[in-house]
């Protein structure tokens, strides 16, 4: 039964990933392949052993999405027309080690699976930096290679990291933009960005390029990371979500005339039109040890009618890497998560596990 459940979860994303890789020449020997990306992630310190190769430390959440109806003019997707759409999600840190200590400055992610009744689902993965300092598969491969762990120090070689910046000057504006981002106190008051661009398709066929962000209703407060507490970000999330439901606005940013759509490293204009597409509410949290998000790949190419991928090449990279990661971890024996059921119970009661 477990194998059948995995097959059901993986079938559609696998077909999409393979189709895009084949169309894009992803299996050619001179291209960046799934195996190459996985090897580079491993050399950069990815733990493996049944965990996701990136964003390895996480927790499952669930709730619902209520559409505002303001995005219906741009997209026929059911999620923009309905209320109380069930959601399964995951908060995570962008680390390859599932037992790494929490750090306020580590990139945080929100991944969602929105499931309208009697309509195709939508999956999205978002990060808290506002822009992605990578342009294509070659940039991604070069970046992972620059993060290779030096056996002598157990850390990436600073010279190799610096060399990546020198040899990829076109990524400098994006990196500088991310360096200026506000570091909030936790997941609940953080903003999460799609990074990649997508195409919304209206009922009449009209197409609109957008990026989106989940913007918190909680006032954003500065981080006050707790030294010595390896799970302080997750403890805070558990406490917050048990204290009250957490909410975000899904804000669509419409590409302006001069915005670059197919390069995620390009910063869009600050005065672009925005549309509040609805409200995400999360009111439950569970450990990945048996939680509902554990076997889900949050593949950004799992899209419903009304949302299409742009020609952004990073979308193909992400989809292919997620699927290869899933196929590998699904065949591996997995240890307990850092955020265990006991930690969730104790943190919700204000205790130490």
TrEMBL record:
Signal peptide: none
InterPro entries in the record: Catalase, Catalase_core, Catalase_sf, Catalase_SrpA-type_pred
Biased composition (Polar residues): 339-353
Superkingdom assignment: Bacteria
A GO molecular-function descriptor: heme binding
Pfam families with a match to the protein in the record: Catalase (PF00199)
Residues in Catalase core domain copies: 31-353
GO biological process: hydrogen peroxide catabolic process; response to hydrogen peroxide
Enzyme class at the top of the EC tree: oxidoreductase
Positions of region (Disordered): 329-353
Family: Belongs to the catalase family.
Record's protein name: Catalase-related peroxidase
Lineage: Bacteria, Pseudomonadati, Pseudomonadota, Alphaproteobacteria, Acetobacterales
């Amino acid at each position: 039964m477990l194998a059948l459940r995995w097959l059901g979860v993986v079938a559609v994303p696998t077909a999409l990933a393979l189709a895009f890789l084949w169309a894009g020449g992803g299996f050619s020997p001179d291209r960046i392949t799934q195996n190459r990306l996985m090897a580079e992630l491993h050399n950069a310190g990815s733990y493996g052993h049944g965990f996701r190769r990136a964003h390895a430390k996480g927790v499952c959440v669930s709730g619902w999405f209520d559409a505002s109806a303001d995005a219906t003019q741009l997209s026929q997707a059911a999620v923009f027309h309905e209320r109380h759409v069930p959601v399964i999600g995951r908060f995570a840190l962008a680390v390859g080690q599932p037992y790494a200590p929490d750090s306020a400055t580590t990139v945080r992610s929100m991944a969602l699976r929105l499931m309208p009744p009697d309509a195709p689902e939508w999956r999205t993965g978002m990060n808290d930096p506002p822009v992605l300092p990578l342009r294509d598969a070659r940039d991604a491969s070069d970046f992972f290679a620059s993060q290779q762990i030096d056996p002598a120090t157990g850390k990436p070689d600073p010279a190799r990291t610096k060399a990546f910046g020198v040899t990829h000057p076109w990524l400098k504006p994006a990196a500088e933009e991310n360096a200026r981002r506000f570091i909030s106190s936790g997941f609940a008051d953080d903003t999460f960005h799609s990074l990649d661009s997508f195409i919304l398709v209206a009922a009449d066929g009209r197409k609109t390029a957008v990026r989106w962000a989940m913007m918190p209703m909680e006032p954003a407060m500065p981080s006050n990371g707790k030294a010595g507490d390896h799970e302080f970000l997750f403890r805070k999330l558990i406490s917050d979500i048990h204290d009250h439901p957490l909410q975000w606005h899904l804000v669509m940013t419409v590409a302006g005339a001069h915005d670059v759509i197919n390069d995620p490293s390009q910063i869009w204009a600050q005065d672009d039109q925005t549309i509040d597409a609805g409200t995400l509410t999360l009111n439950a949290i569970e450990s990945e040890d048996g939680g509902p998000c554990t076997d889900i790949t949050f593949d950004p190419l799992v899209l419903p009618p009304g949302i299409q991928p742009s020609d952004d090449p990073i979308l193909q990279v992400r989809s292919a890497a997620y699927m290869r990661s899933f196929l590998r971890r699904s065949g591996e024996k997995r240890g307990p998560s850092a955020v265990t059921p006991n930690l969730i119970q104790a943190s919700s009661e204000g205790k130490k596990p």
